[in-house]
Structure formats: structure tokens, C-alpha cells
Automatic annotation (TrEMBL):
Key words, A-Z: ATP-binding, Nucleotide-binding
InterPro entries (alphabetical): HerA-like, HerA_central, P-loop_NTPase
UniProt name for this protein: ATP-binding protein
Keyword flag ATP-binding: yes
Catalyzed chemical reaction(s): ATP + H2O = ADP + phosphate + H(+); Couples ATP hydrolysis with the unwinding of duplex DNA by translocating in the 3'-5' direction
Domain Helicase HerA central: residue ranges: 135-350
Origin species: Candidatus Iainarchaeum sp
Top-rank taxon: Archaea
UniProt family annotation: Belongs to the HerA family.
GO MF annotation, one: 5'-3' DNA helicase activity
Amino acid sequence: MSEEIGTVISGQESPSPSKLEFVVNKGLVHRGQFVEMDSSDGTLVALVVDVYKTNRYFERAESVKEFEASGRKMFEQFPTSEWEYLVAQSRLLGVYTNEGLIKRLTFPPSPGTRVRPAVALTMEKFLGFEKDGLQLGRVEHPEMPVELNMTRLLKKHLAILAMSGAGKSVASKVILEELLDRGKEKGRIAIVVMDPHGEYTSFAEPAAGKKSFKDYSSKTMVVKARDIRIGVPKISVAMIASIIPGLSATQRRELERILSRLKNEMRQGLGPFDLATLRNSISQDEEIKDATKGVLVSWIYSLEDLRLFSKTDSPSINDVVKQGKLTVVDLSEIVDMRKKQIIVSYFSSKLFNERRQARIPPFLLVIEEAHQFCPERTREEAAISKKIIETIAREGRKFGASLCLISQRPINLSTTALSQCNTHLILRVTNPYDLKHIGESSEGIDYKSQEMITSLKVGEALIVGEAVNQPVFFKVRKNKSAESKHEISLEEAALKFEEGKEKELKETEEFL
Ligand SMILES: Nc1ncnc2c1ncn2[C@@H]1O[C@H](COP(=O)(O)OP(=O)(O)OP(=O)(O)O)[C@@H](O)[C@H]1O
Ligand SMILES: [Mg+2]
């Protein structure tokens, strides 16, 4: 049993079954620390949510001012330091019974109860950590690894939310590394990442003898956006309708008719068709009214301009989704938002439908910048991928289709999708609107926790929801998959640009 560090005091309306204060008798107590104490039911567990100092001598402003105004100093005249106390405000989390059960408290501990630092062994069970689970980082007090059960973390979807630069991508890469490191006997899922900034391509880089980072290149496949082709015969009218905003019922019906005719002809031996064939068939069709024809043809032209469609799928989903393997869809070269959305929509629908028919293994689909692909409020044409993401969020867990949505603007992220994410990993957030939104959409985040979220440092996180029994603050570990590069400063970027310019100038002069 660890050493006692404090004693429960009688405060305003505390101790109660939900909160207590204790005075620290020995050593230091930190915000975010877990403590424990004995009770007749078992071990009570509490979380220190704030610490403050008090001193009777300095309580009354007028006395302090009057005394010190005369040139005397309080601490010289009185034993003030002996009257300084450190008080820890704590939230009671529950009781860990002697039978190993976790119960809510319905009755408060008594003032005078002795408080000890919580021991890791109790806390692991209390928080629901799992030996051999996914190791995401460490809790500081008591010092222990955060090990989470894969099903609890991912099955009912995960959202990673924080302001820019707080460590979202690092945290999601930690999860991917843990998944890729899993042995076959533990059950491995396939992973697909929608990567708008090309941040995950480092997984495919061979470590080439560098000991500092781990080689995942044999388990990673990068799909460059420019190499992606969507087979026209495979796309549904629903998907076309989501790409073409404002398709009228007549236009849709005609398109459906011609598509199904082409699909029939394909089966009869004419082979797969592309957009040009579809366009020609529309142009040559004699039943469609001219006005409808004109609209459809011009839409097909605009789709052809995207250079995304062809006769067959490439790569095919079954080639890219493999158990224990990672596929990174690198969207960084695309500027056109619509094109990015079509790709995300296409991959998401394919993954979901194939999984539903058990033709591919269970998977985790990671969507970076999720607010861009599944926005809350938006015009129809800016939401091509929204519907399918919401569908996976709602129904995916039944089929082993898990989502990890990452966003720096949770307020702009679809409430439907976010509310289906049963675990939230939250890193630093300071924007009050985002904070309020997170407080409302995550269960178990009270006012004090919100306050703590604003003071988190980069890489520090709070995890709440399905994956853990209680909200836990912890430090996310560093990535193994690449050497940690520090972010380039503005000065460095400016110098680099200038050097390049000077070199260019010199070369031109030499040439002349
Ligand atoms: N757990 C961590 N340990 C150490 N350093 C970290 C950690 N998390 C983040 N960092 C540092 O912070 C930087 C930014 O992290 P990251 O790219 O994950 O932020 P982000 O939240 O994804 O930002 P953005 O919203 O811009 O995508 C990293 O390059 C790294 O240097
Ligand atoms: Mg990021």
C-alpha cells in the first residue's frame, strides 16, 4: 500500500458522493492525479481536478494591507509559513470493491479519511485498461501505460478532436502503429487512411538501417490520387446523383435507363464502358427530350474533366484492403475539393458495401480533416461524401466497419457522425465555441475537464467514452513510424526560400 499523502477535510457541501477536498500532509499533489482511500465498500478512487493553497493569515484583505502598509512584513512577525496549506479538490469516480467490481458512490467518505496516491494495479482495472491492448501512451500519476482494448476503442468509432498542431495526426499514427504491430493471433483488421496532406506516406518509407524509427514499409501501400480510376460500370446512379447536384427526377430516370442498358450490353459481351460511351449513348438516345439531354451531356463532360473515371476500377478495393496492412490514399496533390470528396465517397461506399457482404476483412477507415468530407452545414454539392460517412457511422459497427474521424473544427463536423463516435480522444482546444461543442457532444466532460482541456500541452490528451471506464488524461507516446521532424519555423522557411532565390540568380548570371 502506498504512503498517505492527505486527509479529507470538511468543506462547503463536501465530501459528497461526487466530490471531496483533502489537505495535503506530505509531498505534492498534481492536477490530474488519481488518488485512493479506504471505505467499507472497498477502495474509493478520486481524480484531483484542482489544487489550491490557503493561509489564514492572508485571508482578510484589510488586515493584510493595514499591517504591511506600516512597513512591517507579515512573514517576519508571524509564523505564516506554518499556516499555509495545499488543498486538493477531487472528483470521486467510484469504488473498486474487494470483489473486483466497479460501483458508483451513493454515500460520501467521512472527513478525516486518509488519502493515498492510487496504485497502478488498481487504476488499470478501474479505468478498464487491458494488458496487451493498444498502447497509446502513459498516465503520469500513477505512472502507467494506457493500454486499450481494440474493440472498445474502435468498434463504435473514434473521433480525434483538437486545435491545429495539438497532436491529432501523431495520436492517430500511434493507433495505426499499434494495429500494424498486432500479431495474427490477436485478430488484425485492415486500415485505410484518407490523407489530404500526404502526412501518412511516411509509413511506406523504408527505415534503411536507421534504428531511430520502425520500418512499416512492407505493411503499407500508398495510393496516389492521380493513379485512382473509378470504373463507370460499377458506380450507382445514387453515387452519380450525389456527384451531380440538383439532378431532377426526370434527368435521374433517363440516366438510370441508359446506364442499365449499357450495363446489360456489357454483360452480353460488349465489355466495360467509360464516360465517353455513356455521353455518346445519351446524345444518340431518341427518347430523351433535348433539354434533358443537354444538361446530362454537359454534366458528363464536367465529370470527364476530373480525369477520375474509366472503364474499370484501379486499384481494385480487394487489392488494397488486407488484414494487418495499411493503405494510405494520398490526396495531397488534388486541389479540387469535389474531386477529393468523390474519391473519399467512392472508397467509403466500396469499403462499406464489400464489408457488408463479408468480401473484405473488418476495417478501420481513418478520415483526416473529417469536417471537409462530412460537414455539418453545407450546400448539397459540397457534401458528396457526407451521406456515406454518416451511414458507416450509424451502421458500421454491425459489420466491423469502423471509423476514425479526425478534425480541428468539431463544430463544423456532422453532428450525426460525431454523435455516433462512442470514443473521443481530445487534445488541446482553446477556442470556446469548439470547447463548448465538445463538452456537449462528449459524455463525461464536465466544466472542470473542459478547463483542463484548454491547459493541455501538445501531445497531451483526454480520452472519454466506450474505450475507458472513466475519462483519463494521458500523454500520447511518440511515433515509431518516422523520425520526429520538428515543425519548420517561419524564419527557417523564409531563409530557405531566400537561399533558393540567390542560388537561382547566381546560376542565371553564370549562364549568361
Ligand atoms: N505525442 C506527442 N509527442 C511528442 N510530440 C508531439 C506529440 N504530438 C504532437 N507532437 C508535436 O507536435 C507537432 C504537431 O502534431 P500533429 O501534426 O499531430 O498536429 P495536428 O493536431 O495533427 O495538427 P493539424 O491540425 O495541423 O493537422 C508534431 O510534429 C510533433 O512535433
Ligand atoms: Mg494533422
